[in-house]
Structure formats: C-alpha cells, structure tokens
Amino acid sequence: MENQKVEQDLLREVNRLSTRSLWMGVLFLLLIVMALFHLFNWNDYRLAPDTDGSGDDRTFISHVEDFVMEDFPDTEEGRSAAFGQKLIMETAKYLGPNNEYGEVYSGNHLSCNSCHLDGGTKAYAGSYVGLTGIFPMFSGRDGKVATLEDRINGCFERSLNGQKLPKDSEEMVAIVSYMAHLSKNVRIGDRIDGQGFVEFTPPDRKANLRNGEQVFQAHCVACHQQDGQGIWKDDTQKSEGYIYPPLWGHDSYNDGAGMGRMLTASKFIKGNMPLGVDPLNPILTDEEVYDVAAYINSFDRPIKANKEKDYPDLTLKPKDSAYPPFADSISPEQHKYGPYNF
C-alpha cells in the first residue's frame, strides 16, 4: 500500500510539472511570435481604419458635394490629367473648329464644361466624380457594354457635334486621366449621390411652348440672350468659345445629344438653372422646366447622321428620344413634347 501511494504522488508531480512545462512552452512561443512581428514591422501591414479592406487609407466620399479638388501630382499621370482639365474647360480652344493646336474634333464652339459644370465637379450636373469606377457599363444606345472612352466619344459626336477622338490619342488619355484624378476618392463600383441629375416628375400633359417662352424670357435671356445664341468670351477670337453657350442653332448640340431629349434637359435645367441655383432648392418648378426645355428644343439645330442605328434594341429607347425608328406606334411629336404616359 505504501509503494502504491508513492507511485500516485509521483504521478501527480509528473503531471504538475508537465502542465507547467506546457504553459511555459506556450508563453515562449508567444514571445517568439511577438518578436517576429516587431522584427518585420507588422504594423506596416495592418489594414487602415475606415477602408474597404484594401489597405488604402484614403477617406472615400459618398456624395459629389463632399469632393475636394486636389493638386495634380508632378508625375506623367498628373501632367496628363492637368492637360485633360484644359480640354474639358476649353474644348473649343484645343479641339474646336478654329483651334490653332491640331486636328478638329469638336464641330461647334461649346466645351465639355458647358454641360458638365465646374469641370465636371458640380453635383447634379453630370459630374465626372466617381465616373471611372463605374465603367465599362452597358449602353442601350450603343447596344453593347461601352467603355468610358466610348461614352466620351458619344459627347464629341453629339453634344459637340463633332467626331470621335482616337482612343489612344494624347487628348483621350488626358481626359480619362483627369476623370480618374477626380474619382480617386470614390470606391470602385460605387454610384454616389450627386452623379447624374436631380429628381424630376414630368407633368402628365403635352409641353406648352408659349409657357416655355415666358419662362425663357424671365430666367434665361440674361445669359443666353434673346436669340438663344449665348455670349462669346471674345467675339473676335471664336476659338475661345462661350461664356454662356447657345441653346439652339448651328453652333449648338445636335439632335442626337442627350440634352435634345425633353426629360434629360428638364432635369438639367431644374438642378442648375438659372446658373448658381442650389440643385436641392430649385427656383424653377417641374412645370416650368418641362415647358422651357420644350421651347429650347423646338428650334432648329444640327442633324446627327445615322441616328437610326441608335438603340439596336428599340425597347430600350427612352420615351423622350424623338427620332425614329420606335418600338411603339406613338407619334414623333409625342415622343418629343409628351405626355410621357405610355
């Protein structure tokens, strides 16, 4: 019995020593791991707070109004983006009919800034902020997944009434670089508030051109003039473009442009006109912008060639796209002036 007790005491002591050794081993391993973390600067690899897990410590924005313009870096990319900004702000000077720099790509003296206000940084004015992160995207008008370059060329052929920029040209690369500079604090794939235009509810009636003329006289002639032809920066140097662009006539956007559509024009006018209005507290009502958009688009303007090739799937054609062919039996006049209750 005495030998059995000694054996039990000895077994308990062995177990106690084994447990202590185990914990000492674990502690030793932890010390080694901590030393290795310190040795290899583990802190350099920790994810920054408030990011998407990419390790990027930028503060991402969720509204165009939160955008803050940053200086262009002194790099090849930065210099390209700076040139792109010039092309956006002074399109006619560098690419227009009277430019002194090279080939003509813009068929009128408008600038991209005529619609994409403040160089594409203004909320609810077709902002470029975040744009590079949502392309490529499907385009019903093109009938395919379109690149950002495709979308830019759509503006050149329609709003600027010109021709496509070569996709590998210095000018195209610069414009895309500028848009990328504006978009770097927006998460890729995010659509943020302030892109596009304000909400607009079209009246359930045909637009009234007489009312539209009255709205134009009251709110638009100071900048766009009585004849709708705008004001040149310098009428002796047409390549400088306009302070306020023409809204119709030979030097305006053509009939294939987005602004030639009633609902698109109404949204733009509501959120941005008269110039300087707070887009979320507009001056003009839905009724007024509806009628004045119709009045503006009732005048002659350049004709876009080959519009019949737009929207290969006609069921995707917007109701306010006023040129044939159509997928329905609605008249072209109703497509142009409403009502859009079909």
Question: Would you spell out the secondary-structure blueprint of this structure?
Answer:
Elements: H1 2-39, H2 76-89, H3 91-95, H4 117-120, E1 137-139, E2 144-146, H5 148-157, H6 170-183, H7 209-219, H8 221-224, E3 231-232, E4 242-244, H9 262-272, H10 286-296, H11 332-337
Antiparallel strand pairs: 1-2, 3-4
Helix pairs in contact: 2-6, 7-10, 9-10
CATH architecture descriptor text of the largest domain: Orthogonal Bundle
Number of individual domains: 2
Mean pLDDT comes to: 90
Helical content band: 25-40%
Strand order of the largest sheet: 1-2
Helix-strand pattern, N to C? HHHHEEHHHHEEHHH
What is the CATH superfamily label of the largest domain? Answer: Cytochrome c-like domain
Predict the CATH topology of the largest domain. Answer: Cytochrome Bc1 Complex, Chain D, domain 2
State the name of the first-level CATH class of the largest domain.
Mainly Alpha
Could you explain the architecture of this structure?
The protein is mainly α. The chain folds into two domains: 64-183, Cytochrome Bc1 Complex, Chain D, domain 2 (Orthogonal Bundle); 209-337, Cytochrome c-like domain (Cytochrome Bc1 Complex, Chain D, domain 2, Orthogonal Bundle), CATH 1.10.760.10. Helix content is 37%, strand content 3%. It is built from eleven helices and four strands, in the order ααααββααααββααα. The chain has helices at 2-39, 76-89, 91-95, 117-120, 148-157, 170-183, 209-219, 221-224, 262-272, 286-296, 332-337; strands at 137-139, 144-146, 231-232, 242-244. It has a two-stranded antiparallel sheet. A hairpin with a 4-residue loop joins β1 (137-139) and β2. The longest helix has 38 residues, at 2-39. It is globular. The model is unreliable at 36-52 (pLDDT under 50).
